[in-house]
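Minutes, structural biology subgroup

Action item carried over from last meeting: produce the structure token record for CHAD domain-containing protein (Phytohabitans aurantiacus). EB confirmed the sequence was re-checked against the source entry. Recorded below for completeness.
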Amino acid sequence: MVSPPMSRDEVDFAIVGLVAAHDRISAAMYTVDAHPGLVVLRRNDLRGTTQAVAAETLPRVDTLWSQFSALRSVLDRVKAVRAERSRPGDEELQELTILLRGPVLPLGPDGMVVEDPLAGPPPNWVTTMGLAQELERASAEVTDTLDDVQTAQAETAHRFEPVSKALEQARQVADVLGYATTGSDVERLDVRLAEATFAAMRDPLDPVGPAADLVRDVDGLAAKLADYSRLRDAYPERIRRLKAALDEVANAEAVAAAAYSIALEKIANPGLPAAPDAVPALRAHIAQLDQLHREQRWPRLADELSIVERSVTAARERAAHLHQAADGLMQRRAELRGRLDAYRARTGRMALAEHAQLSELHRAAQELLYTSPCDLPAATRAVVAYQRYLNELTERGHR
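Output recorded by EB:
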């Protein structure tokens, strides 16, 4: 029993203080109950640091509610006793003194209010005002913890925001491109991002950002889609240039074919590869490009367009090379003819025009060079034989 009893003024002053404390605690408990951080801690899939904080904080919140409920019950009793008489007598003052200053609230080891103080281990009895002060302190601590959790969750979400924005932009580009496979790429990355975000949100107090490979893949997809967009915009000009280049190939192949025709007629066994004829296949390939463009199959179009562009360049170079090869055979024959004529003129200057064996060698070389088709290897050997014998006769004359 608490003695001496409080005076009426002391009781009224204490009640005012207790009501004010109750209102502050009530507001704090409402903040706790509606706090976004508490929603995070109540998830059943938490991990790591956040899971440990939840294991400590959630029971503490339950304890706060138990104590707050008991505090409110005592306050209701205090108000009821005080309201019985405008000027409370000794009996009312004694009861109010006990309620306001006495150890009237039994708490268990876990801080929960004990319903039956006689059952189990002896409780820890606390005063009403003492409990109110503890509730204010504890609710403020819990609120701080919940603030930290909420901040950590927001920061975790913020770390994923750039990747999420990049992926959303990629989705918009994919939609504009209208290509289903590209959309599937976006969806697969969207699933990976959602899984990574979900995993990070399971432990926001342990800072984790998106994995490097996820960032790299999203950036890679964005770059690829940008390439497809550029391809879509540049396709008309690229296909125009490609068709113009193919016309050049057709001209080059026609020139090469003409040189081939002459070489095959004039040169025996020219050893030339098949005449260039890449234009029909390339025109068919370009028609396929137009089909891919109409179907908006950008990845395939990008690959095939590069292939055709390289093929056109290679075909033009091959046509030029084969033209040079065919024309080179005719130039070789002309060169041998010129050499033979020069050697013949030399024999005249040296008074060897009537030399029988030299004349026979000249006749053999001339017959090979001026017979169609010309056997170039044999003609080359004949010209060389004529040259050597002429040089031999020249050296004898000098000696």
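Discussion: The longest strand covers residues 103-107.
Next step: EB to file the record with the rest of the batch.
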